[in-house]
Amino acid sequence: MPKAKGKSRRHKYSYNLNRKRLYRSARRRAAPRIACSHIRHAWDPHKSVAQNLAEMGLAEDPNKAVPIPKKLLGMEVDSDGQQPGKKIVRKPYVVNEMELEASLPEKKSNTLSRDLIDYVRYMIQNHGENYKEMARDEKNYYQDTPKQIKRKINVYKNFYPEEYKNFIASLKPEKMEVQ
Protein backbone atom coordinates (compact mmCIF):
# COMPACT_ATOMS: atom_id res chain seq x y z
CA MET A 1 0.00 0.00 0.00
CA PRO A 2 1.26 3.49 -0.76
CA LYS A 3 2.06 5.87 2.08
CA ALA A 4 -0.29 8.74 2.92
CA LYS A 5 0.71 11.98 1.28
CA GLY A 6 2.51 14.43 3.53
CA LYS A 7 3.42 11.92 6.24
CA SER A 8 6.97 11.41 5.07
CA ARG A 9 7.63 15.13 4.79
CA ARG A 10 9.69 16.62 7.62
CA HIS A 11 7.77 19.19 9.70
CA LYS A 12 9.72 22.32 10.53
CA TYR A 13 9.55 23.90 13.96
CA SER A 14 8.70 27.59 13.93
CA TYR A 15 11.15 29.30 16.27
CA ASN A 16 9.61 32.73 15.84
CA LEU A 17 6.22 31.80 17.29
CA ASN A 18 5.76 32.72 20.97
CA ARG A 19 3.58 29.90 22.27
CA LYS A 20 3.52 31.14 25.89
CA ARG A 21 1.95 34.45 24.91
CA LEU A 22 -0.70 32.72 22.80
CA TYR A 23 -1.64 30.40 25.65
CA ARG A 24 -1.85 33.22 28.21
CA SER A 25 -4.07 35.42 26.07
CA ALA A 26 -6.46 32.53 25.38
CA ARG A 27 -6.75 31.83 29.11
CA ARG A 28 -7.35 35.48 29.94
CA ARG A 29 -10.27 35.76 27.54
CA ALA A 30 -12.05 32.66 28.80
CA ALA A 31 -14.97 33.37 31.12
CA PRO A 32 -15.26 31.33 34.31
CA ARG A 33 -17.27 28.14 33.94
CA ILE A 34 -20.26 28.28 36.26
CA ALA A 35 -22.32 25.15 36.91
CA CYS A 36 -25.25 26.69 38.83
CA SER A 37 -27.77 28.37 36.52
CA HIS A 38 -28.86 30.87 39.20
CA ILE A 39 -25.32 32.19 39.58
CA ARG A 40 -24.76 32.15 35.81
CA HIS A 41 -27.76 34.42 35.17
CA ALA A 42 -26.81 36.90 37.91
CA TRP A 43 -23.12 36.98 36.93
CA ASP A 44 -21.69 40.31 35.73
CA PRO A 45 -18.70 39.72 33.41
CA HIS A 46 -17.39 43.24 34.01
CA LYS A 47 -16.82 42.60 37.73
CA SER A 48 -14.30 40.36 39.48
CA VAL A 49 -15.18 36.99 40.96
CA ALA A 50 -14.98 38.37 44.51
CA GLN A 51 -17.29 41.29 43.67
CA ASN A 52 -19.85 39.05 41.95
CA LEU A 53 -19.95 36.57 44.83
CA ALA A 54 -20.16 39.35 47.44
CA GLU A 55 -23.16 40.89 45.64
CA MET A 56 -24.93 37.53 45.65
CA GLY A 57 -24.21 36.94 49.32
CA LEU A 58 -21.93 33.99 48.64
CA ALA A 59 -18.49 33.40 50.14
CA GLU A 60 -15.34 33.45 48.06
CA ASP A 61 -13.24 31.83 50.78
CA PRO A 62 -15.10 29.52 53.19
CA ASN A 63 -12.36 29.87 55.80
CA LYS A 64 -13.00 33.61 56.03
CA ALA A 65 -16.79 33.25 55.83
CA VAL A 66 -17.08 30.91 58.81
CA PRO A 67 -14.03 31.53 60.99
CA ILE A 68 -13.07 29.24 63.84
CA PRO A 69 -14.06 31.04 67.05
CA LYS A 70 -11.23 31.83 69.44
CA LYS A 71 -12.29 30.84 72.92
CA LEU A 72 -9.70 32.51 75.06
CA LEU A 73 -10.39 33.25 78.70
CA GLY A 74 -10.35 37.05 78.47
CA MET A 75 -12.16 37.46 75.11
CA GLU A 76 -15.89 37.87 74.60
CA VAL A 77 -17.69 37.35 71.31
CA ASP A 78 -20.19 39.97 70.12
CA SER A 79 -23.76 38.68 70.20
CA ASP A 80 -24.76 40.77 67.15
CA GLY A 81 -23.05 38.46 64.67
CA GLN A 82 -22.50 41.44 62.34
CA GLN A 83 -18.94 42.01 61.30
CA PRO A 84 -17.74 45.56 60.67
CA GLY A 85 -17.28 46.32 56.97
CA LYS A 86 -19.66 43.59 55.83
CA LYS A 87 -20.76 44.02 52.23
CA ILE A 88 -24.36 44.62 51.25
CA VAL A 89 -26.09 41.80 49.40
CA ARG A 90 -27.61 43.27 46.24
CA LYS A 91 -28.79 40.01 44.67
CA PRO A 92 -30.36 37.99 47.52
CA TYR A 93 -32.63 36.12 45.09
CA VAL A 94 -29.68 33.97 43.99
CA VAL A 95 -29.19 32.48 47.47
CA ASN A 96 -32.97 32.15 47.96
CA GLU A 97 -33.35 30.22 44.68
CA MET A 98 -30.39 27.97 45.52
CA GLU A 99 -31.85 27.21 48.99
CA LEU A 100 -35.25 26.46 47.45
CA GLU A 101 -33.66 24.11 44.92
CA ALA A 102 -31.65 22.37 47.66
CA SER A 103 -34.76 21.86 49.84
CA LEU A 104 -36.62 19.96 47.10
CA PRO A 105 -36.70 16.20 47.67
CA GLU A 106 -34.29 14.24 45.53
CA LYS A 107 -36.03 11.94 43.10
CA LYS A 108 -34.73 8.40 42.98
CA SER A 109 -33.09 7.52 39.72
CA ASN A 110 -32.07 4.04 40.80
CA THR A 111 -33.21 1.50 38.27
CA LEU A 112 -32.10 -1.94 37.28
CA SER A 113 -31.86 -3.32 33.77
CA ARG A 114 -34.69 -5.48 32.52
CA ASP A 115 -32.25 -8.35 31.97
CA LEU A 116 -31.12 -8.31 35.61
CA ILE A 117 -34.71 -8.22 36.87
CA ASP A 118 -35.64 -11.19 34.67
CA TYR A 119 -32.52 -13.08 35.78
CA VAL A 120 -33.27 -12.56 39.48
CA ARG A 121 -36.94 -13.51 39.06
CA TYR A 122 -36.00 -16.67 37.15
CA MET A 123 -33.51 -17.71 39.82
CA ILE A 124 -35.94 -17.14 42.69
CA GLN A 125 -38.76 -18.87 40.83
CA ASN A 126 -36.74 -22.01 40.08
CA HIS A 127 -34.44 -22.29 43.10
CA GLY A 128 -36.02 -20.31 45.97
CA GLU A 129 -33.29 -19.44 48.48
CA ASN A 130 -30.72 -22.06 47.37
CA TYR A 131 -27.86 -19.91 46.05
CA LYS A 132 -25.50 -22.81 45.38
CA GLU A 133 -28.06 -24.32 43.05
CA MET A 134 -28.49 -20.93 41.35
CA ALA A 135 -24.75 -20.76 40.72
CA ARG A 136 -24.89 -24.13 38.91
CA ASP A 137 -27.92 -23.16 36.81
CA GLU A 138 -27.47 -23.09 33.02
CA LYS A 139 -28.90 -19.55 32.82
CA ASN A 140 -26.04 -18.26 34.97
CA TYR A 141 -24.21 -17.00 31.88
CA TYR A 142 -21.76 -14.78 33.73
CA GLN A 143 -20.83 -17.61 36.14
CA ASP A 144 -21.76 -15.62 39.22
CA THR A 145 -20.81 -17.13 42.55
CA PRO A 146 -23.54 -17.80 45.14
CA LYS A 147 -22.57 -14.63 47.02
CA GLN A 148 -22.78 -12.52 43.84
CA ILE A 149 -26.23 -13.92 43.07
CA LYS A 150 -27.36 -13.23 46.64
CA ARG A 151 -26.10 -9.65 46.32
CA LYS A 152 -28.03 -9.17 43.06
CA ILE A 153 -31.20 -10.48 44.67
CA ASN A 154 -30.73 -8.11 47.64
CA VAL A 155 -30.25 -5.18 45.25
CA TYR A 156 -33.51 -6.14 43.53
CA LYS A 157 -35.26 -6.33 46.94
CA ASN A 158 -34.00 -2.85 47.88
CA PHE A 159 -34.84 -1.17 44.58
CA TYR A 160 -38.30 -2.69 44.13
CA PRO A 161 -39.63 -3.81 47.55
CA GLU A 162 -43.32 -3.80 46.55
CA GLU A 163 -42.70 -5.67 43.32
CA TYR A 164 -40.58 -8.24 45.20
CA LYS A 165 -43.32 -8.81 47.82
CA ASN A 166 -45.94 -9.30 45.11
CA PHE A 167 -43.66 -11.68 43.24
CA ILE A 168 -42.99 -13.81 46.35
CA ALA A 169 -46.71 -13.80 47.18
CA SER A 170 -47.53 -15.05 43.68
CA LEU A 171 -45.01 -17.90 44.05
CA LYS A 172 -46.51 -19.33 47.27
CA PRO A 173 -49.81 -20.59 45.70
CA GLU A 174 -47.80 -22.37 42.98
CA LYS A 175 -45.79 -24.27 45.60
CA MET A 176 -48.96 -25.25 47.43
CA GLU A 177 -50.43 -26.75 44.23
CA VAL A 178 -47.28 -28.78 43.50
CA GLN A 179 -47.21 -30.45 46.92
What are the SSEs and their pairings?
Elements (H helix, E strand, L loop, with lengths): L18 H11 L7 H6 L6 H8 L5 H4 L26 H12 L10 H14 L3 H5 L10 H14 L1 H18 L1
Helix pairs in contact: 6-8, 8-9
Describe what you observe in this structure.
The chain is an all-alpha fold. It has two domains: 19-66 and 86-103, no CATH class; 114-175. 51% of the residues lie in helices and 0% in strands. It is built from nine helices and no strands. Belongs to the NOP16 family.
Brief rundown of the structure:
The protein has nine helices and no strands. With 179 residues, the chain is mainly α. The protein is flat and about 75 Å long.
Tell me about the biggest sheet?
none
Supply the helix-strand structural class: mainly alpha
Q: What is the straight-line distance between the termini?
A: 73 Å
Number of domain units: 2
Mean pLDDT: 81
State which percent range the strand residues make up: under 5%
How many DSSP H or I helices? 9
